[in-house]
Structures are given as C-alpha cells and as structure tokens.
Amino acid sequence: MTIKRPIHAAPFTVAAILIMTMAASASASSIVYDTTDGGSIFVGSGLTLNSTGGAAATLAYHPIGDTTVGVPTNINLGSFTLSCPSCGTEASGLGTSFGAFTFDLIVSDDTPTDDTAVGEFVGTSSGGTVWSDQSSVSISWLPVSLGPGTTGAISGNFGTSVFTISTPSLIVSPNSGTNPGTTTVQGVLASTAAPEPATMAMVGGLFIGLAALARKRRA
User: Fold this and answer.
1) Over the stretch 101-121, which tens digit does the pLDDT of each residue have?
2) What is the pLDDT of residues 17-54, one digit of tens each?
C-alpha cells in the first residue's frame, strides 16, 4: 500500500509540471525596442547639453539601439554622461553649473509581430551644481509608463506592452562609476497579455482528464 500512493500521485505531479510549463510559455514573449529612432533630444540643444557657468562641462545622452528582450524584464533606456575635465573638488572652488532643461526620451516598440509604436517620456530638471566628485543634477520623468495600447503613444499602438521608467534619474558626478560620470536610465518592460485561449483550453482539458482519472481510481 505504501508503494501505490506515490504511483497515484505521479500523474498529478507530472500534470502540475505541464501546467506550469504551459503557463510560462503562454506568458513568455520577446519585444524589440530602442531609443534611437524617434529623436530623443535635449529640447533646443540636441544630444549634448553645455554648462551655463563655471568650468566647461557637458551632459550627453547615449541612446540604445534595437534590443530584443524577454518580458517581463528590467531594461536600459539609454544613459547620460556628465563630463567636466577642468572641474576640481568642491573644496578647490572650481566647479560648474547647469541651468534648467527638458529632455524628450523617445521609446520605439519595433516588435515585428505587433503594431509598432512610439512613445515619449518627458524629463525635466532644475539643473544644479557640479564638481569633479559631486553632482546635484537630477531628471524627473512624466509619464512614468507608456502603454498598453495607445496610452502615452505619439503614434502606433503598444498592444500589451508597458514600458515603465524609474524616476528620478540622479546624474552622478564626473568621477563616479566604472564608466566615469555615466548614469543609466532604468526601467521595466512588462505585458498585460493574458494566457492565450488555446492554452487555457488545454489546461482546462487537462484538469477534466485528471478529475476523471481520480474518479476512476476511487471506483
């Protein structure tokens, strides 16, 4: 008798694994996106912003090209690099400053199997002061998400895709990090897709079969 119970449980264990596998495959998908196609830009000054006072400094945006990722996942939406070759520490007194600015971060969903879409995160900053080892510059983003559907879209339809941006982006000092002065703009890519009807039908059929098997064994 002690041998039969594990044997009886085996079909249910296998079924549970199959259900989890089918559910995973139903929710898994990949999306192609980039921040190069739509014209990400410092409003009025291209991809590089110059300092407004003190030592010469720049804040440059580096877009990300076509990238294929699974969903859901954390994503990179490009990066900013703050550079001030002549800046010293705050104690040295040689620093620089940036005035208020706006940045348009354009995200394109280029997934071939879906309707392509373009959306815009608008970043605003009051500027700030910078030394070689300090920065007070940050960028706040609105909206915080693009999609699903036409939500936040400039054109096209995001379908079930949802791009979310982490806000604010805190711009690091020129000497900070492995790539000095580089701040990655981070976000999350998710999907509102439900399991496909065919998958749900298979899962339902599997449950019906298990129920019949259980009744037969009890009989």
Assistant:
1) 999 999 999 987 666 899 999
2) 333 333 333 344 899 999 997 789 999 999 999 999 99
Of the candidates 185, 186, 168, the residue with the CA atom closest to the CA atom of residue 80: 185
Residue with tokens 């705050």: 90
Tokens representing residue 49 in the block: 């912003």
Closest of 55, 49, 169 to residue 99, by C-alpha: 49
- Mind listing the pLDDT tens digit for each residue in 190-214? 999 864 443 334 434 444 444 444 4
What mean pLDDT value characterizes the chain? Answer: 83
- Please give the Cα distance from 183 to 28 (Å, whole number): 30
Interatomic CA distance for residues 19 and 207, integer angstroms: 9
Question: What does the radius of gyration of the chain's CA atoms come to, in whole angstroms?
Answer: 26
* Cβ atoms 124, 105 nearer than 8 A: no
Q: Which stretch of DSSP H or E encloses residue 82?
A: strand 73-83
pTM of the model: 0.77
At 163, list the tokens. Answer: 């791009």
Residues 168-198, buried b or exposed e (16+ Cβ, 10 A)? ebebbbbbbeeeebbbbbbbebbbeeeeeee
